[in-house]
Amino acid sequence: MNEAIHSSDAADSGSPAGATYPDLEALRARAASLNVEFAALDADARIQRAFELFGDALIATTSFGRDAALLLHHLQRLNIPVRVFFMDTGFHFPETLAYRDTLTKQWKLRVQTVESDNLGRRQYEVIENGKNGPETHITNIDACCGINKVEVQRKFLALPDVSAFMSGLRRDQADTRKETPFVMVQRGKIKFMPFADWPSEQVDLYLRLWEVPEHPLAAQGYTSIGCSPVTCTRPPVDGDARSGRWANEAKTECGIHLDKEI
Ligand code: SF4
To answer: Ligand 1: which residue has its CA nearest to atom 7?
Structure first.
């Protein structure tokens, strides 16, 4: 099932950008306690415990990128029927959308595709002539991510039936992620990262052992797959898995994994 909803469908009653959340300190204390508990569990048990705690108020988030199947396959294998939110920025590779459809159908996932309804969502897109023909560039990557990712995420996290979310974030993906806990608070919701301590070798082994379908661009050498403009995703260099993301720019994160607005 793949249901498309727009960001304006989300409750506008959620906390606005930059707002403080009620009982935030109590929520952070709860997350800290859960973080200690989760450190002693394996990934299966972390996911099962998160669902036991929050039930249908727990959602999963995914980009349907290179490692997306790790979390999604666990949900399917463990029979955890949570809603899966996918942000369609409007700039994804066609292969990513096809991969979404393949996994959704094969594993009967409850995918909800969410996108910005901002009329200026493509205002930073320009087409330029490149070495191999026309290339799409983004002239202001922070603003574009702000509209098409951060704002969309903020709205669906504000939905009244969402209390917690799960992400496949891992510590060895980037320097900015090396302190990733198993549980934290982001935008007033509990965030679970059951694979925080999984190295990439363990991810690859899991996906091979379970013969999980691979993202179509993985065979072309892409190790981290975001949006398709050349500004945003290129093949990696020097063995650094995320070096192709916003290459030649200072930017390393789109903002959806940071507990602040950009
Ligand atoms: S990754 Fe690139 S195209 Fe995608 S939202 Fe961010 S700036 Fe825009």
So the answer is: 141
pLDDT in tens, 185-240: 999 999 999 999 999 999 999 999 999 999 999 988 888 888 988 888 876 666 66
List, in order, residues 6 or more apart from 104 with CB less than 8 Å away: 1, 2, 111
227 lines ligand 1 (CB under 6 A): yes
- List domains and CATH numbers for the chain: 2-220 (3.40.50.620)
d(CA 120, CA 219): 34
The residue whose C-alpha atom lies closest to atom 6 belonging to ligand 1 is: 145
pTM greater than 0.90: no
Which atom of ligand 1 lies at the shortest distance from residue 149's CA? 5
